[in-house]
């Protein structure tokens, strides 16, 4: 059985770099920025089949130039067989 992970983050960035950071995040596999504010606050959703993939993307985002802070808000893991039954 394989896993499926979903998590959401709040990412605070330097407002002048918001667009470039948003594009960089959205270029990552399984990453989406559904909500953002011009003041430099982004909501990021990450999806993936392995915890290590999610953690790697989280760490990558934290270290992007212009990122001031990154906070994990939500994380859920499901077994793939549970998703197929639903």
UniProtKB/TrEMBL annotation:
Key words of the record: Chaperone, Cytoplasm
Subunit and partners: Interacts with the cytoplasmic NapA precursor.
Location, primary (coarse class): cytoplasm
GO biological process: one example: negative regulation of protein transport
Gene Ontology CC terms, in alphabetical order: cytoplasm
Function as written in the Swiss-Prot or TrEMBL entry: Chaperone for NapA, the catalytic subunit of the periplasmic nitrate reductase. It binds directly and specifically to the twin-arginine signal peptide of NapA, preventing premature interaction with the Tat translocase and premature export.
One example GO MF annotation: signal sequence binding
Keyword Cytoplasm included in the entry's annotation: yes
Taxonomic superkingdom: Bacteria
Protein name per Swiss-Prot or TrEMBL: Chaperone NapD
The family this protein is said to belong to: Belongs to the NapD family.
A Pfam family reported for this protein in Swiss-Prot or TrEMBL: NapD
Subcellular location: Cytoplasm
């Amino acid at each position: 059985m394989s896993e499926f992970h979903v998590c959401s983050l709040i990412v605070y960035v330097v407002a002048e770099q918001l667009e470039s950071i948003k594009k960089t995040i959205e270029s990552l596999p399984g990453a989406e920025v559904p909500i953002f504010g011009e003041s430099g606050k982004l909501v990021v959703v990450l999806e993936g089949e392995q915890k290590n993939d999610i953690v790697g993307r989280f760490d990558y985002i934290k270290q992007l130039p212009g990122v001031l802070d990154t906070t994990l808000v939500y994380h859920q893991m499901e077994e793939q067989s549970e998703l197929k039954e639903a």
